[in-house]
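User: My advisor asked me to double-check a structure prediction for Transforming growth factor, beta receptor associated protein 1 before group meeting. I don't want to rely on an old file, so could you generate it fresh from this sequence?
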Amino acid sequence: IMSVKAFELVPAVEREQVMGEKVRINIECIECCGKHLYLGTNDCFIHHFLLEEHTTAKGKLAYNVQKLLHKYLGLKKPVAELKAASALERLIVLCDSNITVVDMVTLEPVPTGGTKLKGVTAFCINENPVTGDAFCVEMAVVLARRRAVQICTVHEDRVQMLKEVTTPEQPCALSLDGYNICLALSTQYMILNYSTGASQDLFPYDCEERKPIVKRIGREEFLLAGPGGLGMFANAEGISQRAPVSWSESVIAATVCFPYVVALDEGFVTVHSMLDQQLKQTLSFRDGHLLQDFEGKVVLASSKAVYILVPLPLERQIQDLLEGHRVEEALTLTEAAQRNIPKEKYQILHKRILQQAGFIQFGQLQFLEAKEHFRKGQLDVRELISLYPLLLPASSSFTRCHPPLHEFADLNHLTQGDQEKVQRFKHFLISYLHEVRSSDSANGFREDVDTALLKLYAETGHESLLDLLASDNACVLADSAPWLEKHHKYFALGLLYHYNGQDSAALQMWVKIVNGDLQDSTRPDLFEYVVDFLSFCSNLDLVWRHADWALQKDQKVGVQIFTKRFTSEEKTGQLNPDDVITYLQKHSQALLLYLEHLVLEKRLQKEKCHTHLAVLYADRVLGLISRPSATDDQLSAARQKLQQLLKESNLYRVQLLLGKVQDSELLLLERATLHGKLEEHDKALHILVHQLKDSAAAEEYCSWASASHDQFYRQNLFHQLLSVYLDPDVPGGVQTVAAVDLLNRNADVFDAVHVLKILPEEWSLPLLRPFLCGALRASVHARCTSQVAVGLARAQNLQLQHDRLKYRGGPILVSEKKGCQLCHNTFSEPDCACLPGGTPVHIHCVAKKTLNLPVEALGATRTCK
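Assistant: Sure, here is a fresh prediction for Transforming growth factor, beta receptor associated protein 1 from the sequence you gave:
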């Protein structure tokens, strides 16, 4: 059974090399130190082998074994345990309940003084020593029929006992790490700190029912055989920081080869992951009874032979998992491998595994997970783009990674013609490329990314196509243009031409769409867009070339080419208004709109333009008058425009306009306005009063004509109108009602005394009551206002005098002995000025302002007292 191949079982020492011709020889214990392998057998022999690794022709690891020596210990008992002390070049041997020390090379017993260790049932070496002496070995020893553990040190020439620690029960097995002893008692496991005496019970266990397992697997961490077939982990505090693994209840030995727990039972070797506690591999192995690890080398022995469990490289294991599409397991194993791989190599491996995992999930349509792995793995996005046929530009120099990151030929191979899947893959790539484009990940190959994105947008009709082309982009024109044309994205093609500086090609494309030669409904308002584009186009040749086309399409819209553009006679690249006016002569509506833009919106102060617009307005009005089909509303609107221009503008040629409207009896109001521009107020008032007979218009005329003049001018103009009303020599005689209304409504304008002198004597005072009241009120108001102004002026003058006196203060003393504060010279005459505070200074010093001090001359000369 195998979910991942983590180990290979490689023979090391064959049966014949151990026992020769003897049949009843069994291996009892093993020890490995570098290339040296030691076996203890049941006939009291120690066998010494040299293991040499080599690689077979098929690339597999194998061992060449050379037997160096074997030694009989002379006790006729099995060798129960062997432990190497490489620093001392000694081998610690447990045989017949006694611990002896032999030379690692000659296997000869070494005489040792000090403590004699007899009656020993078990011992272990401290792989995390606390003495700090490199030339001694620390070990813990369990003695028969004693509830205690002895802590000893083995030196080159002696064994020394350091401490004896009592235990609640007789220990069956133990392991030592620093000061911490993990013990399997007869009924339970416990951890004991022999330095502090602190102990922690772990969990119950029956040693008589099955063999206990106590294995140090790392600093202050142990692996124990727990009840119910569980492999339990415990640290020095008695806490399990890892989840247990579920192995067989008949496990007889176990060890750890990170990240795996390897366990041996009666018929199998099982491999569990410490990361997810799952069974990863099972190897059949009969008659196994020894399993130990020696510095990462896992040695397995039956009673007759020795094997090495060779771990496959983690990279290969990870690749096997990825080939089985077991992404999460592969990633977990990759992260666990960090501790065993150099940092730089791990970073490269980790990125590649993330990229491979991303492609696996990509192929399974797990796009969110794939995107995250691509991002973390810093995938060259072109690896992804290359799966989509024809998306990379022809100029791209990209070649796929080798060895490949995935097993897909392209998108067609991946989807097998399923169009729904194809669309899902394309939408994912759009999303991913959009994110890549907004980050720094696309640096160095923006052309590939932007061109691929453009092609996808065009294919799928994505709304972001125009945004891409309207923004800063690196789309390859030679690749993108045919693609846009193929998918009928002609407007977008125009944008692409424009971005690449080919405005002529862009306009040519858009004009064809507007004319109906090409079909593209992207922008229903494309004509307005083209006009707007031309209004900002700096290439005047293009503007003139397409202006006539736009004006023929729609003069009202087409003229915006000129009205939206900045106009200047001097600035290079801008249009001269005179040139535009000349060009628009054949487009009357556009000409009128352009002149309105110049005069009414831009407020261009140019007589020629004002006159031209006024003439066009007048011609329009005269044309409507002569046209029987013209409606009153049309005529009224046209006259309103003309009247407004005639009143507001002061630049047009008045006589020219007056000549155009002189003969029209309908344009009396316009004629009156023109006479007013010529200061011919009598003619204007005559037209308004006697021809037009519109007293309201006459009164409004007086207000308009005097709007920019002083009160006297205004008063004089209203007096003229009153005189017209009171003239008895005109047909109809005196217009009494109009005159009275004028006086009563504008009492504050008239000179009441002058008015009373020219009014007919027969008029009654009640008729003029509003006028007289208004005039009197205005006179009183003017008088009161004048009095208030005089009072305020007097108060201000008084205040100024008060301030002057306050600043002058008391007398200023000046003498020949007293110096000027500014020049430090003495005073030779009594005339002086004062600084604030009363300090005297020379008048000429203040005038010259020789210092940057706030100097305030009081304007008075004082005589020395």
